[in-house]
Write a structure and sequence with these properties.
Elements: H1 5-13, E1 20-27, H2 35-55, E2 60-62, E3 66-68, H3 74-86, E4 92-97, E5 110-113, H4 124-146
Parallel strand pairs: 1-2, 1-3, 1-4, 4-5
Amino acid sequence: MNWNAADMNTFLQQKEYIDTLIVPLIKVETNESLMKTSASATDFLMNLSTYIEQQFKGRIMVAPPFAYSPSMNSKEFGEVLSKDIAKSPFRHVFYLTTDAEWTSLELHGKVLWLPAIPLENMDERLKNSIFEDQLKQLLPLLTEEWKK
């Protein structure tokens, strides 16, 4: 499920089954030499979020991406975001990111860090294969949390 009006209606009617929130964290590089890498990482993360949502429709809600720039204080941003998300009805929260800095922060929920894989020159079958492989790596982390 995605954070839109139609899916939110479904969530509000069936929230006892939709207990997990995926929060994409997007680093927006404004330095011209890093913009392409940043855009590629964003592309990867958003496509992976969509893939995960499709695989777990009815269990997972994907939040809109939260974007931040390098000059922002990630610790403060993470604390505020985490505090707000802790008030939500979701039992399980996963922050999905390609920025390893988030792994050192204390947040309400679990940080899932993945290295960005450039997708721009891949055909759809290869992209899907990569997303399957990434999900296989994430699945034990998701199921471990769901058992709690």
